[in-house]
Amino acid sequence: MSIGTQLDLPAEVQAAIQNAIAVVDAHMAGLNARDPAAIAASLHFPHYRLAGSVFKVWENSDTYLDDFYARAGDGWARSQWNRQDVIAATADKVHLDMEFTRFHEDGSALGTYRSIWVITRIDGRWAAQLRSSFAR
Predict the structure, then answer these.
(1) pTM over 0.70
(2) Where in the sequence is the domain holding 26, given as residue range(s)?
(3) pLDDT above 70: residue 7
């Protein structure tokens, strides 16, 4: 299901999808601004990530941004979403099939990757709870 084909979904599911997209967009904006507080606000902790066969758990946000810099590699300047497709959604959880590109300062691509993000509403707050990525 693409983002634009939700007209037949219940209003609460459409709202969940809008909230999920706002979360991942805020996450990307926080990364690009190098803003640890904005990034932390876009994630539930503990936060889980499966990359290849490596499973990582962040109990809190203390090392998340430094861990990202280590993963992104030398020369990372910014990232952008290329697409955000809804796989499935309920009023409290949304699965997104995402693709993003990491860029050098000169605008050349470091790499393009797919990932699946699970965005949940916990205690009234929407944030990313886990994801599986092909990025390192």
Answers:
(1) yes
(2) 11-133
(3) no
